[in-house]
Amino acid sequence: DQQVKQNSPSLSVQEGRISILNCDYTNSMFDYFLWYKKYPAEGPTFLISISSIKDKNEDGRFTVFLNKSAKHLSLHIVPSQPGDSAVYFCAAMLGGSQGNLIFGKGTKLSVKP
Amino acid sequence: GAGVSQSPSNKVTEKGKDVELRCDPISGHTALYWYRQSLGQGLEFLIYFQGNSAPDKSGLPSDRFSAERTGGSVSTLTIQRTQQEDSAVYLCASSSLIRGYTFGSGTRLTVV
Fold first, then answer.
1. Would you say A26 and A3 are in contact if contact means Cβ atoms under 8 Å apart?
2. Any idea what DSSP says for residue B100?
3. Rounded to an integer, what distance in angstroms lies between the CA atom of residue B3 and that of residue A69?
4. For the residues A70-89, what does the mean pLDDT come to?
5. How near does any CA of chain B get to the CA of A106, in Å?
6. Would you call A43 and B98 a contact, using CB atoms and an 8 Å cutoff?
7. pLDDT tens, position by position, B65-92
């Protein structure tokens, strides 16, 4: 029973266009969400996060949107660059504690020049 | 060190053998996590250490898996009597604050 779902295993976009990666969750008690980026043969690296008290967080080309009523979050990358090609994982945490993160299965983004 | 260090980076073992995977967290990080990523799957939580508290072992898939963290620093994940379904990338992460959740590069375990 997956609590964090990334329903698109892959996404391909053209360089310069917007990439939108989606994530759905089932547990309404999640109150902190993160996106990680993973290149082959490397560990995931933190990209951006959002607290449940917000609906948007922006950091340069990356923006995360949270829709609590729909239990949905999305990561927007604008403009997309070939170096953004990687697997993106959505993760969620309960109660703001330092407990374990629950990850989705990831979406592989390919940005074509 | 500057990052989370895992060793070995690759391990091939025969079915039925025991393996030990090592994680050196970032100095001063009180929390340490083990995850694994099987082919086509997301990151599966295995175990979590926080300071001197009892570890959260709720993600360990069977009693063949165990982990310890000595002196609040280095951690070893042990898999006994390995099976082919144990083949995966085993990732370790450490953190002091949630944004400091830093992963190592992982150990790719192949059971043949």
1. yes
2. G
3. 38
4. 97
5. 6
6. no
7. 999 998 878 999 999 999 999 999 999 9
